[in-house]
Write a structure and sequence with these properties.
Order of helices and strands: HEHEEEEHHEHEHEHEHHEHEH
Strand order of the largest sheet: 1-2-6-7-8-9-10-11
Oligomer: single chain
Number of strands: 11
Bound molecules: magnesium ion
Structural class: alpha/beta
Shape: globular
CATH superfamily: Phosphatidylinositol (PI) phosphodiesterase
Length: 269
């Protein structure tokens, strides 16, 4: 073996070893060991705008298991992060991205695109799932399907799928995601299907308003039996958090992540 081939040997061994392991994107991301999902990021206590990258970063810094955000699509098919159908009194679906982005958020940040938001969620984040709510289109059911597909394609282009959970009020949006990727983690928001139905349809979680679980306490056991993830929104009162923690919910989606983290810590003592 000459000197040149000797020097290549460690590199060849490394390449071979790397081939024995799955790429990071194929290994499911391990979320922090708490049930707290910051609703639209952690914004309230620090006076940040909802759905801002700053609120996502704060949720990551707090160590939340997840940070939720809302995706909408502009008239020229840009995916942006905003809860309401309108931004600065302009309909997002009827306005081009360039016109929307002229108006910054209240902290000076620009209206985030999904690409920017996911990238922020990939940076210095070891434990916070990205809980991606795909808002139904106000224009048509078909446009909702297109939004779902575009979101899914971007998640995969950025190789961030191992840490994304898809949620929606539109069951057909979740079905579209599952058609594209049968193993995707999806959670339904509307609260009108029992966990048996979710299991049948391949939907992995019941992410329902907490009142739904009070109206149907039997769904908690039904979910466990079916290995359906239990998540409740939007839980801001201490008493409600205590009840959900006692029931052993997998996730509690809240505007008060600091309080929920504290409650969870006390419960664990
Ligand atoms: Mg939402």
């Amino acid at each position: 073996m000459n000197i040149k081939s000797k020097s290549l040997l460690p590199a060849i061994v490394l390449l071979f070893a790397a081939g024995c392991f799955k790429p990071a994107s194929e290994v499911r991301f391990k979320a922090a060991d708490n049930p707290v999902v910051a609703h639209r990021g952690a914004w309230k206590k620090r006076g940040l705008p909802e759905n801002s990258i700053a609120s996502l970063r704060t949720a990551i810094e707090l160590g939340c298991a997840g940070s939720e955000f809302d995706v909408r699509m502009t008239a020229d098919d840009s995916l942006v992060i905003n809860h309401d159908p309108a931004y600065n009194e302009m309909s997002i679906e009827k306005t081009n991205y360039a016109d929307l982005v002229k108006f910054p958020l209240s902290n000076g940040e620009k209206l985030p695109t999904l690409r920017e938001y996911l990238r922020a969620g990939m940076s210095k984040n070891q434990h916070t799932l990205l809980v991606c709510e795909i808002k139904p289109s106000e224009t048509s059911k078909e446009r909702g399907q297109l939004i779902a597909e575009k979101v899914w394609r971007l998640v995969h282009a950025l190789k961030v799928q191992s840490r994304v959970v898809y949620i929606s009020f539109d069951y057909d949006i979740l079905k579209k995601i599952l058609q594209l990727e049968p193993g995707a983690v999806t959670q339904y928001l509307e609260g009108n299907h029992d966990p048996d139905q979710l299991k049948t349809d391949g939907v992995r979680g019941a992410d329902y308003h907490f009142s739904v679980f009070h109206a149907h306490p039997e769904w908690i056991e039904m979910a466990r039996k079916n290995k359906i993830i239990l998540n409740a929104w939007t839980v801001n009162e201490a008493q409600e958090m205590d009840w959900l923690l006692r029931q052993g919910f997998d996730f509690i989606t809240t505007n008060e992540p600091e309080l929920a983290l504290e409650k969870n810590k006390i419960k664990g003592l």
